[in-house]
Specification:
Elements lengths: L7 H25 L11 H14 L29
Family: Belongs to the complex I NDUFA1 subunit family.
Subcellular location: Mitochondrion inner membrane
Protein name: NADH dehydrogenase [ubiquinone] 1 alpha subcomplex subunit 1
Length: 86
């Protein structure tokens, strides 16, 4: 007759693997966010500002306090143009 705790070992392994993968995904998301907490309730204005910050600094969550825009910023226009109808 089997020992009752032997049936719990696979459950502990599965629970441990779910915990490890959840912690790893959380850490990766935290690193991709530039070490900042995730944003919630992002509206159109926030998306526009995040796009501007990305064009200024190269990172989605990056911000700068520099008075002058970096070289090449005047060419990275945020306006999306339609294709010409010909």
């Amino acid at each position: 007759m089997g020992v009752p705790f032997e049936a719990l070992i696979p459950y502990a392994i599965c629970l441990g693997m779910f915990g490890v993968s959840g912690a790893a995904l959380s850490k990766i998301r935290h690193m991709q966010n530039g070490g900042k907490r995730p944003r919630h309730s992002v509206d159109q204005w926030d998306r526009q500002m995040m796009d501007r910050d990305r064009r200024l600094t190269g990172f989605l969550r990056g911000q700068t306090d520099s008075v002058k825009a970096p070289a090449g910023f005047e060419l990275s226009n945020a306006w999306r143009l339609e294709k010409a109808i010909v």
